[in-house]
Each structure stands twice: as structure tokens, then as C-alpha cells.
Design a protein that fits this description.
Elements: H1 2-5, E1 10-12, H2 22-30, E2 35-38, H3 44-57, E3 62-67, H4 75-91, H5 106-115, E4 120-124, H6 130-139, E5 142-147, H7 150-158, E6 163-167, E7 173-174, H8 191-201, E8 206-209, H9 215-223, E9 228-231, H10 245-251, E10 257-260, E11 268-271, H11 274-279, H12 289-304, H13 326-349
Parallel strand pairs: 1-9, 2-3, 3-4, 4-5, 5-6, 6-8, 8-9
Antiparallel strand pairs: 7-11, 10-11
Helix pairs in contact: 2-3, 4-12, 5-6, 9-13
Length: about 350
């Protein structure tokens, strides 16, 4: 297992949508962690280019994350939500995009990773079919599946997953649930509780994800049964990340986060802003249709430096993120983790 070979028990979250870059991926791997590239939202050719660049920067293990395709939403539901955004988009001087369902070039990306395998392929938004898991394993890749509850973990292991990324409710960005339940308003299971539940339910390595920003957080996850910790928000302010200036500024603020479907039609955690507050109650489950509808509006807001209309994905501990190079951050986190574990062991030895 790759996890047994890592000098540092730190995994870079994929960070799809802009922050993921070959420089960031390679920097984390070079520092002893496991860097991931996000395949989400990229064309297959763009993913190929990024893979080539990452491999030119590091010979250490890397991973690639894929989105498992969902199902189309009812067109009238999307149209109703889009109509409610039209006036706001006009005030911002931006249009709205065309609603469309697509599978993120699922088959082509699988072909690429089967032909040019990476050490780890992880999946978000669902359980990959067992034949997909077997195909990637034959190519030489470990298969990880991101889960948010016990039943998902059991399904993933039954499909052949080598490890599970355990996403607690504290995590920033999209919730990785196999099904985005319309009744779910963001009341998920916290990471430490979920780690304990899954440690008793399945017998594969667990990678903890959600609200981890310091070595103390990593140490807590390891103590709860994880083999490593996956951090995303903690790396968003690193210079190697493709995070936009308006997002970087928000990450350094104490503004709290909330769950919303307003930006993409899928439940996700971001820093509270005007758009999130205005539209979270009326946004339907419709991913990726709403993602495409709001994309031009969000792009215009980023260009204008307007944080009110941008999806500011972040975990609950985002205010603890640091603006340092990724390799340096891995080293700092490793030292903090070691210190936290030693301090805990010392307390246990006290009479």
C-alpha cells in the first residue's frame, strides 16, 4: 500500500475547479506526502498534459481523482432556478450559462489512466463499478473511494476499494455522498465519529478528510484509526495552488462556512457570502447542470474581485490556513503532528 510507504501521513485533497495544479501536486509528493491531481472539470487532453507536467516535476507517487457520473436533473427544475438568477446576473453584468448534463468524459479518462497508470486513482460522488476497479488495479493502480457514511463504505469495499477517504461533515467543497439527497441540508457525520464507525465496519485503510488544518488535527485523526490525513483547504493559500485572489482573501478571514447547493446544484461547504445566503433555500439538486448555469456569473465575479458571487469552498477550520510554500507546509504539519502525538503519549503515561 502507498500509505505504508509515505514518509509523511499527509495526502493532498484533489481540489478540482482551479486550485489543483501540477506544481502543487508535485510539491506535496516531493515533501513526503501524496499529491493528488483533480481530473474533475478537465478535458481528457488537459488531464494528460497535467499528468505529463507533474511526472516531469516528481518521480514520487501521485494520485488522480475522478468524478463518478450522476443522473440528469429534471429540466424544469433547473430552468426555474435559473430564471430566479437572471436579474442578479444582469446586475453583475454577466450572463448565465446553458444547462447541460455531462459525464465529465468518464470513459475517456478511465482509458487514459488504464493506459498511463498512476499509483492511486480515487473516486468522488459514488462507487465505481467493480469492473472499473478491477481494470485500474490490473493496470497497477490502487483504488480509493471517498465515503461519507457507513453504508457507502461497505459498498465501496464490496466493489474492491483498496482504501477509503473518509469525508467528515467539516470538509470544504462538495460533499462526496454517493447520492445527493434533497432532504440533506448539511447535517452530516463529523470526522472523528465517522472514523470510529468505519474502523469497526470495514477492514481497509482509512484516510481522514474534513476540517484538518494543523498537526494536532492530523494526530487526532491518526489516533482515531486513520492511516493518513487528507488536507485540502490547508493548501489553498500555498503559492503553488491555482486559488484565485478573491478566494485567498476570504480564506484568511474568520467568516464561518455553510452548506449550499446554490452554486453547483450539489451540496458543498463554502465561506458564507451573499449569493450563498440568498439562494441556498431554493437551489435544487441538479449537478452538473447548475454548475454550468452559474459558471459565467462566478467567472465574472472572480475577475472583478467580487467575493459576494463566488463559490468560496473551504472547510470549517479555514481560518487556520497558512500562506507558505506547499513543501514547507508539509514539513510544518509533520513536525506538529509528531509533537502532538508525543504530548498525548506523555499525558497517558502520567500517574
Amino acid at each position: 500500500m502507498i500509505l505504508d510507504e509515505l514518509p509523511v501521513p499527509i495526502v493532498l485533497a484533489p481540489l478540482a475547479g482551479g486550485p489543483s495544479t501540477p506544481r502543487l501536486t508535485a510539491a506535496v509528493s516531493e515533501a513526503g506526502g501524496l499529491g493528488f491531481l483533480a481530473a474533475g472539470y478537465l478535458t481528457t487532453e488537459a488531464l494528460r498534459t497535467r499528468l505529463d507536467e507533474t511526472r516531469a516535476r516528481t518521480r514520487r507517487p501521485i494520485g488522480v481523482n475522478l468524478f463518478v457520473p450522476g443522473r440528469p436533473a429534471a429540466p424544469e427544475t433547473v430552468a426555474r432556478y435559473a430564471a430566479g438568477l437572471a436579474e442578479e446576473a444582469a446586475r453583475a453584468g454577466a450572463g448565465l450559462g446553458e444547462s447541460r448534463f455531462e459525464d465529465d468524459e468518464w470513459a475517456a479518462k478511465l482509458d487514459l489512466l488504464a493506459a498511463a497508470p498512476v499509483p492511486v486513482v480515487s473516486f468522488t460522488f459514488g462507487r465505481p463499478p467493480a469492473d472499473v476497479v478491477e481494470r485500474l488495479r490490473r493496470a497497477g493502480s490502487e483504488v480509493w473511494v471517498t465515503v461519507t457514511r457507513e453504508e457507502e463504505a461497505v459498498q465501496a469495499v464490496d466493489a474492491g476499494a483498496d482504501a477509503l477517504v473518509v469525508q467528515g461533515a467539516e470538509a470544504g467543497g462538495h460533499r462526496a455522498s454517493f447520492v445527493d439527497d434533497p432532504a440533506d441540508r448539511g447535517e452530516g457525520i463529523g470526522l472523528l465519529s465517522l472514523l470510529q464507525l468505519l474502523r469497526h465496519a470495514v477492514d481497509v485503510p482509512l484516510v481522514a478528510s474534513g476540517g484538518i488544518a494543523t498537526g494536532a488535527g492530523i494526530a487526532a485523526a491518526l489516533a482515531a484509526g486513520a492511516s493518513a490525513a487528507q488536507l485540502g483547504t490547508a493548501f489553498l493559500r500555498c503559492p503553488e495552488a491555482g486559488t484565485t485572489p478573491v478566494h485567498r482573501q476570504a480564506l484568511a478571514s474568520p467568516t464561518p462556512t455553510a452548506m449550499t447547493r446554490a452554486f453547483t446544484g450539489r451540496l458543498a461547504r463554502g465561506i458564507r457570502n451573499g449569493f450563498l445566503e440568498r439562494h441556498s433555500d431554493d437551489a435544487p439538486v441538479a449537478y452538473p447542470e447548475i454548475h454550468h448555469v452559474t459558471a459565467p456569473l462566478r467567472q465574472a465575479a472572480r475577475a472583478a474581485g467580487d467575493p459576494d458571487l463566488v463559490n468560496l469552498w473551504a472547510g470549517q477550520a479555514h481560518a487556520l490556513s497558512r500562506e507558505v510554500p506547499a513543501g514547507e507546509l508539509v514539513g510544518l504539519l509533520a513536525a506538529e503532528t509528531d509533537a502532538a502525538l508525543r504530548a498525548a503519549a506523555a499525558r497517558l503515561r502520567r500517574p
